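Sanity check

After download, print the first record. It should look like this:
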Amino acid sequence: MVILDRTKTYTATDIAAIENNMLSGILACRTPEAVESAITYAHFLNKTGLTAENYPLFIKVLEIGNHWVIDALIGSRDPFLFFSSIQPNNQLLTAAFNLLAERHPGGLYAKSLSVVLGILQAAYNVPIDGYKIYSLSVSDLNALGKHLDEEAGQEDSLNRCILDILEKVAQLEGLDATNRDMEEVAIHSNEIRNFFFDSTKHLNEVIPPVLLARMSYKDFEIPPRNLTEFTKSKLAQEDKIAKEQINIRVSSRGQSSDKEQPAPSAATSAKKSPESGSSARRKSS
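Expected structure tokens:
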């Protein structure tokens, strides 16, 4: 038996907490209905636009990993430039490296990975400035380097982007000899690049092999139900038929009103009868 507390008063904070719980359930994407709701939410964010105030919401949706949701979030924009309007900061870079660390190679949708790499490219374009914003570690470099695809080679666009970032980080070497952590990061970054380019070596010799186990993001995402464009949906067809029927009724009423003439009133008939009688007398005379 469920006992309802009829005396409880919900404050604005309570209602906001309930809304956040519901939104968290949607963004978890554990059911097709949740995925569809997340797609709609991502469409809304895309139309709203990315700003310095709402970018954490975009990161939250990016972390979902469901490629249908990511497509709705990015839309027709270039994934590499998606966060170009946001100044790199510690929170943004922390989220980027965390996402790289959490997912195995192949576990990130290509567009999601492109967005993350675009953030890192912008941040470490001037290596020392990027390092001051976020002092990356060897673990961060392993999280980045593990997403290199040795089979695709250096001609792959994602591989080239990762290699460019590693090259920028490697330029930190020698800038501050007293900073041993920065020196270690720069050396390790250069090692990952060299092992990738050297055909006689493999990444598992410089990156822990457990990190290189490949997976597919498709194995972990739940698809939405069959999506149909509204113009092709049954609801749109029913709406079109209903509008046509309304137009037919309106036009038929207009035509019937034009054809119908008002019947002469009794007073008008009475007025006309004396005139007709007098005219008949004139003719007879």
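If your output differs, re-run the checksum step. Summary of this record's structure: Residues 279-285 have pLDDT under 50 and may be disordered.
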